[in-house]
Specification:
This protein is of the alpha/beta class. Strand 1 and strand 2 form a beta hairpin. The chain has 2 domains: 196 residues, Aspartate Aminotransferase, domain 1; 253 residues, Aspartate Aminotransferase, domain 2 (3-Layer(aba) Sandwich). The structure holds pyridoxal-5'-phosphate (PLP). The site of pyridoxal-5'-phosphate (PLP) has 15 residues, from helix 6.
Length: 479
């Protein structure tokens, strides 16, 4: 029997040639995808879809252009950066490497492995013989690190993490992401997690003592906590953590997925602050804003405990090390090096933080605090409710962040919410953003703040129908 002819509703060319109207895109997303995410973005007025008109600016369907300071720190060059696009076009036209070289050596993977280790060894020479394992996301890079740590210290089943930490949302990384909203429905999580207050060295030392150093496999730490709202630990803290771990052989895993490769003004923020990790997890910027990629770099002896001899397939994945991602990663690293983007990030970031500090001083009733390291910057907004309402803190916090995001969007700046800190909006512009556009970000925030000089005015200036919809959305049972 002849099988029936199948006609798919939308062709790939429809999308490529912009034949899918914005309304169709939104409806399809709300019907077939993560509907409530799109719904809340739509209510807030930030749902797009957007078109990248320059690497650093997006335009919506109405032709309104905004500076992209969002992208969750995964856009080191913005969107469609010509040198990267040209390289990918050349790769597609000329590379003859198989796309998924799982059971063979690959020049693309080999090159990125060598370059990553050589880059890391430049700052931490003891890593000159380390090895890299590739995966497809930040969470997977952490998953790999967890398994490395457990196998390297088989008798130690505990792992130390920190309050406010964010290491991803797949199961094992979620266990290291202490956020009740994300964790609670999935308990029991991975056992043996000891959560210690971030930034408190004495608390860390005490936790190591009371749990017994021999029972602790590893500590997982972000040198700056991004999703917690750009929390920068006190000076000497990271080095102190390193000293304690080194004394007891506890494995130090630096999660540099957000901070690494220039975002915080350094190649490796942890190393710059005196911590020499045994394992480093990288992801976001390595994909150049184009391809998913995770990389876990581990000391040779740690790597060898899990992946040795016939057990070299003990940890594996289908797509990790795929040639396209490796090519993009290789070129991204090269562009970061050629343009010395970590240093640019440090210099521009200092300027940005000075601008933010001025904004906080000018609008103290709107902005509670500002923080920044390199081009990872945060604005912590005050609660939109003028009075404290018991039991409503969470909701007010949520509204404050979402309305701040909406306000910045209305004034031409796309920003990021913070996944583990509701009232914090982060700015993560491309590391190569032209200086005039970078400065314009702060001019636009200034204009937005001048119109809304206190946090409740973000609420009162929001059209009532939007507030009603947002409230209904927040209070409705979902699922
Ligand atoms: C520090 C850190 N670790 C891990 C992750 C998880 O990465 P992914 O979203 O690619 O799984 C993130 C993502 O924001 C992150 O910021």
């Amino acid at each position: 029997m002849k099988s029936p002819t199948i006609t798919l509703p939308i062709s790939a060319s429809d999308v490529l040639d912009n034949r899918l109207p914005a309304a169709h895109v939104l409806n399809a997303e709300k019907t077939y995808g993560n509907a409530d995410l799109i719904r809340v973005l739509e209510i807030t007025g930030v749902a797009g879809p957007f078109r990248a008109v320059t690497p650093w600016e997006h335009e919506d369907a109405r032709g309104i252009r905004r500076i992209n300071a969002g992208g969750y720190a995964a856009l080191p060059f913005g969107d469609r950066y010509p040198p990267l696009i040209e390289f990918v076009e050349a790769y597609l036209a000329r590379s003859q490497s198989p796309g998924l070289p799982q059971q063979a050596a690959s020049p693309w993977r080999a090159a990125l492995e060598q370059n990553l280790v050589s880059l890391l060894a430049r700052f931490a020479p003891s890593h000159s013989d380390s090895r890299v394992f590739f995966s497809n996301s930040g969470a997977e890079a952490i998953e790999t690190a967890i398994k490395f740590a457990r196998m390297a210290r088989p008798k130690a089943a505990r792992i130390i993490n920190f309050t406010g930490a964010y290491h991803g949302k797949t199961y094992a990384p979620l266990s290291l992401t202490p956020n009740a909203e994300y964790q609670d429905p999935f308990r029991p999580l991975m056992p043996g997690i000891v959560t210690v207050p971030y930034g408190d060295l004495r608390a860390f030392a005490k936790a190591v003592r009371s749990n017994g150093p021999d029972r602790i496999a590893a500590v997982f730490i972000e040198p700056v906590q991004g999703e917690a709202g750009v929390i920068i630990p006190p000076e000497g803290y990271l080095k102190g953590i390193g000293d304690i771990c080194r004394k007891h052989g506890i494995i130090i895993v630096a999660d540099e997925i957000q901070t690494g490769l220039g975002r915080c003004g350094e190649w490796f923020a942890s190393i710059a602050d005196g911590l020499e990790p045994d394992v480093i997890a990288l992801a976001k910027p390595l994909g150049g804003g184009l391809t998913p990629i995770g990389a876990t770099i581990a000391r040779r002896e740690i790597f060898g405990k899990m992946l040795a001899g016939m057990s070299c397939k003990r940890h594996s994945n289908t797509f990790g090390g795929n040639s396209l991602s490796m090519a993009v990663g290789l070129k991204s690293l090269e562009l970061l090096v050629e343009d010395n983007l970590p240093e640019r990030s440090r210099i521009l970031g200092e300027r940005g933080l000075a601008r933010l500090t001025k904004l906080r001083d000018s609008y103290p009733k709107l902005i509670e605090a500002v923080r920044g390291r390199g081009m990872l910057m945060a604005l912590q907004f005050r609660p939109v409710s003028p009075v404290h309402i018991p039991f409503a803190d969470e909701l007010i916090g949520e509204f404050s962040g979402v309305l701040a995001l909406r306000m910045l969007h209305a004034y031409g700046v796309q920003a990021n919410l913070s996944l583990s800190s509701k009232r914090v909006v982060r700015l993560t512009p491309a590391l190569n953003i032209p200086e005039d556009l970078f400065d314009t970000i702060f001019e636009r925030i200034d204009r937005a703040a001048a119109k809304n000089p206190n946090a409740p005015s973000m609420l009162t200036s929001t059209p009532p129908d939007i507030l009603v919809n947002l409230t209904k959305f927040a209070l409705a049972p979902h699922g």
